[in-house]
Amino acid sequence: MARIRTRYMMMNHQGKKPLQIVDIQCSKFVGPLKQAFTDAGLWSFQSFDLQSTRALHDNCTCEYHGTSLCTCQLIVLLIYRALGDPITLVLDGRDEQTYIFIVEEKGPSVRPATREMIERIISKTAQKLFEQSKIDAGTNYLSEQI
């Protein structure tokens, strides 16, 4: 089973609980996640990337790490369905974990079935990446033995 957590941690998201917490570095998770949305018939658009923005500023100190050598990531994805407004997902990456939030400014606006579908896509993507990392680790081990 994939290591997906549902425990709560304050992450400067106005006290909101993450939809899911995945033990995968955000930069390694976002590409496969976007592809999984596409495979599910949804369209995703990345509207913000913290590391790209940080690159524009010198001496930007990370509040979490206390240094300018920061691995934190904040990515905003807009998820489009066939009809309706996009769903905003925020991926907040800290070291080897990604906290995933659905942004609902005016209270719950995402239908439960849609929320469940998004959660399934996230879980399946994480599971696939965990399985691939196990295969890669096994392959690396075997190649070292030869």
Radius of gyration: 17 Å
Helix content: 25-40%
Strand order of the largest sheet: 1-2-6-5-4-3
- The number of helical elements comes to 3
Note the quaternary state here. single chain
CATH class: Alpha Beta
Largest sheet: 6 strands, antiparallel
Can you tell me the overall shape?
globular
Please, could you describe this protein's structure?
The chain has 146 residues and is α+β, with helices and mostly antiparallel strands. It has 3 helices and 6 strands. The protein has a single domain, classed as 2-Layer Sandwich (TATA-Binding Protein). It has a 6-stranded antiparallel beta sheet. α1 packs across α3.
Outline of the structure:
Helix content is 36%, strand content 24%. The protein has 146 residues and is an alpha+beta fold. A hairpin with a 2-residue loop joins strand 5 (87-94) and strand 6 (97-103).
Topology (elements, then pairings):
Layout: E1 4-5, E2 20-22, H1 26-39, E3 43-49, H2 50-54, E4 73-80, E5 87-94, E6 97-103, H3 112-145
Keywords:
single chain; 146 residues; alpha+beta; TATA-Binding Protein; six-stranded antiparallel β-sheet; 3 helices; 6 strands; 24% strand; globular; disordered N terminus
